[in-house]
Each structure stands twice: as C-alpha cells, then as structure tokens.
Amino acid sequence: MKKTHLFIIIIATLAVVGCNTTTPNADKKVFKYNESAGIASLDPAFAKDQAMIWATSQLFNGLIQLDSNLNVKPCIAHSWDISPDGLTYTFHLRNDVFFHNNQCFENGSRKVIAPDFVYSFSRILDEKVASPGRWIFNEINYTNNVPDFIAPNDSTFVIRLKQAFSPFLSMLGMPYCFVVPHEAVEHYGPNFRNNPVGTGPFKMQIWKENVKLVMRKNPNYFETDNNGIKLPYLDAVAVTFIIDKQTAFLEFIKGNLDFMNSIDAGYKDELLTRTGQLRKKYQSLINMHSRPYLNTEYLGFLMDNPNSPIADKRIRQAINYGFDRRKMMKYLRNNVGIPGCYGFIPNGLPGFDTTLHCYEYNPAKALQLLEEAGYPNGKGLPTLNLSTTATYLDLCKYIQQQLSIIGININVEVNPPGALREQIAQSKSNWFRGSWIADYPDAENYLSLFFSENFCPTGPNYTHFKNTAFDQLYRKAKATPNDSVRAEMYKQMNSMIMDEAPVVVLYYDQILHFSHKNISGLQSNAMNSLNLKTVIKK
Predict the structure, then answer these.
(1) Which CATH superfamily, name and number, covers 61-194?
(2) Residue 66 in 3-state DSSP?
(3) pLDDT in tens, 453-508
(4) Cα(173)–Cα(62) distance, rounded to whole angstroms?
C-alpha cells in the first residue's frame, strides 16, 4: 500500500472512529491487541520469543516477578532466603494459589505446592521435552545425576547451585520458570501447547491458530491491588493475528485494537515527528508511552578469520568511527532509541556508561587508522561484505554510503532472517547484522556474548571474541553478590570490548507503546513485558 493511500484511509478512518460506539458486548471489558508474528505454542517451556512470552505471561505465574523497574518482587513465593555462599535458594510459597479449573484434575482444580516446581523445572531440563530454556539451569547442582530441585514440604522449595551466580534470582522470572501441573501435561500430551493450564490472571478460552486467541478472566486469581480488590480488572483478552502491519495499524486507529507495540517503517512518519514525538493530530486520540528497551542493535565481526581485513583491530575501529550514528537515528529512526556510542550494555542496566564515549563520528580518526593499517584513504582495502536482512537494509545502506566517503567499500548482502541466523551460527559470515534482547535484567547477559567459553554454535559468542583479562573479570563478576561492585566490573568489561571492537554498536532500542485514551493501568518494563492484570478499560 502506498503511503498516500494509507494517509487517505487514515483520514477517513479518523472521521468515523468517534461514531462507532455500539458493540455487541459493550458491558464486557475485553482488551484487544494484534500479534503479527503469530504464536507457536502456549506451553511456557517453549516461550522463546516475545509473542509467546506475552501470551504465556497472562496464563501462568512463577516464583517471582519483575516490576516496572525490573526489581524482583514476590509472586507464588511470598519470600525467599539465599545462603551466604550464594549456593542455596529457599522459597516460601503462598498457600492460596490454585491452578485453573480443568478436566485434568480429579476435583476440577487444586492448590499449587512445592513439588509442582520440582516437576516444572525438571521438565525444562528433560532432553525429551527439548525446551530452548534448558540453558537457564546451567548452574544447577546435581546429586546422583538428579538436579537439586527439592521440596522438603508442600510450602518450601529449594534450589542448589554448583557455583554462585548473582543474576540467578532474576532469571526465575522468565516464562520458562512458570509452574505447570503434571496432570495437565500428562493428560494433554503434545496438545498441552494449545490447552495450557496455569495459575495466571487469565485462563484459556479459545485459540484458533493464526485467527484469534481469547483468554478469559480467572475468577480465582490470587493477587489483589493495593486496596484489596481482586485482579484482573478486565473480563478477557483477545489477540488477533493480522500479518500486514499497516492493516493492523488501521485497525488500531479505528479502535478495533486497544494497543499497539512499537512502530513500523511503513507508518512511522505518519505517527511520529522527526524528533520522535507523537504528531499533534493524534495526541487527543492516542497515548504514547516510551521507555528504554534492553535491546542492543549491532554489527558483529568474526574475529578469528586471519584472511579477512577485519582481523585488524584498526580496520574495525575505523568502521566504528566512520559513520554518524546520531544522524542515522534522526533520519532513519525518528530518534526512537539512543545512538550506540556507549558500549554494548544498553540503557536501562547497571553498567551502561554515558562517560564511555566510544565511537562518536570522527572521519579524520577513521582515515588515520586506515593509514596505520596500510590502507591510506582506503586504497588497497578489499570490498567488505555485510550480511543483513531486509528489515535493516536502510541502516546498512546508510553505513555503506558514509563509509564509502573515507574509502571503505561495502557490499550489502540481504538474506532471509532464518538463513542469516544459520550463517552466523555456523560462523560463515565475517560481518553480520545482529541484535541482543535481554533474557534477564543483568548486564552479564550481554557480556556473555564475549566470554570465550561461549563460542557459537553452543553459546552466544558469535564473534569468537577471546580475551584472557575479560574472561577472568567475567568469571569474578558472575560470583560477586554486591550489585554496585559488579556494576563497576561490568563497566570495565564494556570498555575492553569497545577497545577491541568486535562489534559496531548501532543503537540502544526504545519501547513505544500506543493505546487509546480509555485504557489505563498498562504496565511494562525495559524487557518489554506486557502486564494486563492491572489494566482498566473504560
């Protein structure tokens, strides 16, 4: 659809939005959003992407939860103790949490007890289940080949680690750690994916794949608001699966969707000014909420290919100095996000360091580095291949144009997302576009991409970066319980990475949530969670 046609449709739509006030279930408060990527499973053991995380987060709960500031808060566990050596975690469970009513239970439902967590966590480690979340329990201790998930009684759950790992508690907020009942998993077998039974504020009603998902209010939900009123406030959540993002945008403008996440290039200029503000004509119709997103967008270099010019640190640094990130953000991203001039750790995490001015635009410095590397003004430097996907082609073309001015010639190769992931995993791309979205809110998750023991394909070190001093500091930081001390270590490691330049940090992403004026209480955090239990729809 051409932008001019889109604009005409939007104007016509705005003219009638206010008139369409009669709906069949006007007394029911149904929150509606679209999921263009689709949902592959509602089993939390497979909640590896945002679409599945958002859906399963409405249906299930874990021991703990993260609030809007990424602080760890009680959930099914009302409290916990951590041993002085950091190896033993003891959780004390609430006694008023029940699974959703379901035919798999002899009496219709039952209370959650500590053995349910033993079962749920052991299931994640079961090779037959093949959960992509197995890695989160890499630090678990084993006794006689059995993971140390222990239930001394129904209200106490104990986890023992083989070595101290400070981020571990926050990791337990991931959907992989949601509790599931063995009765439901055994009753439904492979169909548990579309017959989820959890403890969450909403329960499954109907899922017609790629058409619609409806989750209904759980009347027996255990959490209340500050006034003691039972959550959730909504009657239901309805998810549609419109693939075309411009069509979904029009449905949002018409009021058929209550919420829209992020913004697509096809309509970003329609909604936002060049400085990233909501345009005046929408300000009376829509609320826009923005916050840092724990997502670093970058270009990665394969470090251990001696036949490539980028094996020379000076070439990698010259590329980093050779393009203007701030101009890129203004004209290609409408200033949505922060230019990547402060290292790999994103805004919103301890370790993000605005005093670390890594690679501001400096073409003179880039030319100096090229000359030192033996390529004055880029003369003799072979053309470099940069692998990307169509979504990021505009950014890569911009970098290509800017670097050509200083004599660095780039060939941009566009790949399907799956093919590029495969290339990166098999170390077949010398220079590639990547991004890292936090799995849990600790900078260690980002720095793990540069730990030498994490070489891909078994780990996330896609660049094959190796530095002995970095590795030593990384190991020390993982076991350091003091947050402020650990943050200083993170800053040191961040600086080491930027000096060696295994990556070109493009920008730190930003969350944009759009909702209509009748929606309030929508909660999120820098991991882009979707918390609907406190939403009010008027």
Answers:
(1) Dipeptide-binding Protein; Domain 1 (3.90.76.10)
(2) strand
(3) 998 877 899 999 999 999 999 999 999 988 899 999 999 999 999 999 999 999 99
(4) 6
What are all long-range contacts of 454-457, with beta carbons under 8 Å and residues at least 24 apart? Answer: 456/424, 456/425, 456/427, 457/425, 457/426
CATH topology for the 26-41+198-291+512-537 domain: D-Maltodextrin-Binding Protein; domain 2 (3.40.190)
Give the residue among 293, 296, 297 at the shortest CA–CA distance from 433: 297
* Beta-carbon count within 10 A of 294 CB: 28
Angle formed at CA 313 by CA 308 and CA 318, multiple of 5 degrees: 95
Closest to 140 measured CA to CA, from 131, 149, 132:
149
292-510: what CATH class? alpha beta
Encode pLDDT of 404-451 as tens digits: 999 999 999 999 998 999 999 899 999 999 999 999 999 999 999 999
Q: Indicate the pTM of the whole model.
A: 0.88
Cα gap 502→466, rounded to integer Å: 10
Please state the domain extents for the chain. Answer: 26-41+198-291+512-537, 61-194, 292-510
Picking from 460, 441, 435, the residue whose alpha carbon sits closest to that of residue 449 is 460
With contact defined as beta carbons under 8 Å apart, do 450 and 461 qualify? yes
Residue 406, classed as helix, strand or coil, is coil
| C-beta pairs of 408-412 under 8 Å, 24+ apart in sequence | 408/318, 408/319, 408/322, 408/366, 408/370, 408/378, 408/381, 408/384, 409/378, 409/381, 409/383, 409/384, 410/383, 410/384, 410/385, 410/386, 411/383, 411/384, 411/385, 411/386, 412/386, 412/388
- Placement of tokens 């009753």 in the chain: 187
Strands 88-93 vs 77-82: parallel, antiparallel or unpaired: antiparallel
Counting Cβ atoms within 10 Å, is residue 55 exposed (0-12), middle (13-18) or buried (19+)? buried
The pLDDT tens digits of the residues spanning 46-83 come to: 999 999 999 999 999 999 999 999 999 999 999 999 99
42: phi > 0 → left, psi -120 to 50 → alpha, else beta; which? alpha
> Cα separation of 529 and 523, whole Å?
8
Rg of the chain, C-alpha, whole Å: 25
* 317 Cβ contact list (under 8 Å, min separation 6): 359, 366, 369, 501
- DSSP letter string over 155-171? TEEEEEBSS--TTHHHH
CA–CA distances in Å: residue 379 to residues 315, 374, 409: 13, 8, 10
CA separation, residue 369 to residues 78, 257, 317, 502 (Å): 57, 52, 7, 16
> Where are the extended beta strands (E) located within 457-538?
503-516, 519-520, 536-537
